[in-house]
Amino acid sequence: MPMRKLWLGLAGLALLVSAGCAGKANVQTRKRADFDKKLDRVLIVFAPERLGDDFVVAFRPRFAKQLQSRGVESQYAIVEGELTLETAPSLSEQAKEFQATSILSLLAAGGTLNSNGSVATARLNGKLMDLGLRKLVWRADIEYTPGGTLVSVEERADVLVRAILDALVADGLISEQPKA
Questions:
Q1: Which residues are registered as beta bridge partners of 123?
Q2: Alpha helices, H only, the chain
Q3: How far apart, in whole angstroms, are the C-alpha atoms of residue 176 and residue 168?
Q4: Does residue 64 lie within any of the structural domains?
Q5: Other beta carbons less than 10 A from residue 128's beta carbon
Q6: Which residues of 145-174 are buried (b: 16+ CB within 10 A; e: fewer)?
Q7: For 3, what's the count of Cα atoms within 13 Å in the CB-facing half-sphere?
Q8: DSSP classification of residue 113
Q9: What is the pLDDT along the chain (180 residues), one digit of tens a residue?
Q10: Alpha carbon separation from 96 to 86, 90, 125, 133, 169 (Å, rounded)
Q11: Phi, psi of 125 (to 5 degrees)
């Protein structure tokens, strides 16, 4: 009986620790060697699917604010929902209206669910299209683990924001330090 209590105690501790983890993200990228511009006006297509509406609501303003602090104006594209009856304007129309110089897409590319149906891991494909060149200039494979339920959705979103920003900085696409 004491051994069973020990195992139950350890299992409870492991559950508590995993519920309190902030999550992690790993981003692998490839940039076109002859592309040396910095982002300035970017239309963002963000469709992470199963990460949830609360995550999207937390992620979007944080990412936009971090881009803006580095001199990048951004706007999120209007994308169609699964059961939407209205057709969203085309990306090219939205980019033209915003006067975007590039389109950054961050789209769901897979992942795994826990036994309770929540996201255990998410994979996103990132692509940056330079509209002047009409070429894909950057790609990213993003592996994201949201972390535990005791961590706020804002903190979980910050993990993904930071990872993507770090990748864009490392590839010379945005400034490292926010502008004063």
A1: 110, 143
A2: 2-19, 53-68, 91-98, 153-170
A3: 9
A4: yes
A5: 24
A6: bbbbeebebeebbbbbbebbbebbeebebb
A7: 0
A8: E
A9: 555 444 444 444 333 344 456 689 999 999 999 999 999 999 999 988 778 888 899 999 999 999 999 999 999 999 877 677 788 899 999 999 999 999 999 998 888 877 777 777 889 999 999 999 999 999 999 999 988 778 898 999 999 999 999 999 999 999 987 766
A10: 20, 10, 23, 15, 26
A11: -100, 125
Q: Could you tell me if residue 88 is left (phi over 0), alpha (psi between -120 and 50 degrees) or otherwise beta? A: beta
What is d(CA 44, CA 104) in angstroms, rounded to the nearest whole number?
Answer: 5
Provide the CATH number for the domain around residue 30: 3.40.50
- DSSP helix/strand/coil, 143: strand
115: amino acid identity, one letter: S
Name residue 142's beta-bridge partners.
Answer: 27, 124
Q: Give the integer Cα–Cα distance in Å for 105 and 57.
A: 17
pTM of the model: 0.83
Count how many domains the chain has: 1
Which residues have C-beta within 8 Å of that of residue 92, sequence separation ≥ 6?
Answer: none
